[in-house]
Amino acid sequence: MKFPGRRNTKHYFPVEDKQRSSFDDEINRPGNVYVVGIDQLLVDIEIPVDDAFLEKHKFTKGESFIIDDNLADTIYWQYKNAGQITGEFPGGAVGNTLHNFSILSDCPSVALGTINKNIELGDYAFKYICNTSSKVNLTYLQPCPRPMGRALCFVSPDRDRTFAISKGCMNDLSPEFIPVDVIEKSAALLVSAYTLRDDKSPMFKSTLRALEVAKNANVPVVLSLGTSGLVNEKKDLLLEIIPKYISVIAMNESEALSLTGISDPLLAAEKVLDLCDMVLLTVGARGLYIGALTDKAHARETKEPLHTKSLVEYNKYEYSRARRRADCDPDQLVKVYSHINPFRGGPQMIKNTNGAGDAALAAVLHDISATPYHKNKVPNSPKHASNYLTYSSISQISKYANRVSFEVLSQNSPRLLRGLPEKEDGLEEAYWEK
């Protein structure tokens, strides 16, 4: 999928040529569009283990939890010296999404968080920077004396992933380091439930400050839920924050169950739309659902066959573009849904499940950011005759998100290594429309 944007990168010599552009000016260029994300900067360290290892350390399989830094060091060096670590990748749900967004859109994004101020060749911080897209602006990070956080990713024989987090300085982001003007001018603010885990940490206060800034500036806020255990732990706080600040929620079916108490994905999405404007719900081998709000005046009927599951003809208005609740006629509100099965049935071999949801969310963010970009470029376009949250229909977005997830599932990295191809055989033409 292509959106209007500056796609061609040119290299100029010599270096003092005036046509060269400063990276620091990237987000300040007139008409440029970017997203901002707050993250606990982490390096994912992938270690294959058996179930006996998890039982020995009493690690809950498939969950994410905090462990002591010393225990993390012991496990890391045990497997490092044995040559059994299969990868060290820049991680963090928000960090992955920002990287993928910039790869897909060729547009800048801004990361807020903390990083070791004394970066050495080959250390965790060095690897994080080297493996993050140059379009992700890291100049607003807060420097800290402590090392970066680490996420020990234990991969079971069934390919399930269990995360043990060694915090380091990941929660030390001070509210004073929240750049108000940068958030106010952004196309969207991306936050994670992980940053709300410790209500006594500076990161918690910084996240709340950023949410307040975005709300006052009418910037859409996108929330990634993390894990079902985290949602259970912070359910009351999330149910308080979501209606107040959040426009879009990204989650999987287990997180949806924890938040709503509903196991059926469609009914869970319906419930979540009482709290926010749009939902991305990934359901593993069954693909993904997107739910959104519109009103009768802006609802567009699908040309595809109608489907009935737990909701009758749930995809009837899947050609609708998402709108924010405040922009809808409250007496004519309509909830719209779209579902898509895994792209081409899914990869023949799934090399990595970590990051597939983050990749889908990056596609959603790309579409959301295309709305202000196109409005700046073509202000009189009929696409902007009314206020919309997304540039495309939720049906089109589901195809895009599904395709990006497939790309991550096909590689051994939670981050995109390249953008999507210009066009592929077997894909309908409308998928690539501008």
UniProtKB/TrEMBL annotation:
PANTHER family for this protein: CARBOHYDRATE KINASE PFKB DOMAIN-CONTAINING PROTEIN, SUGAR KINASE
Highest taxon above the source species: Bacteria
> Can you name one GO molecular function term for this protein?
kinase activity
Source species: Peredibacter starrii
Q: Which NCBIfam families match?
A: PRK15074.1 (NF011655)
Carbohydrate kinase PfkB domain residues are: 133-292
Entry keyword annotation includes DNA damage: no
What does the sequence similarity comment in the record state about its family? Belongs to the carbohydrate kinase PfkB family.
The record's section on Pfam families has: PfkB
Protein's recorded name: Inosine/guanosine kinase
Q: Which residues form a coiled coil?
A: none
Keywords for the protein's UniProt record, in alphabetical order = Kinase, Transferase
Q: Which InterPro entries match?
A: Carb_kinase_PfkB-like (IPR052700), PfkB_dom (IPR011611), Ribokinase-like (IPR029056)
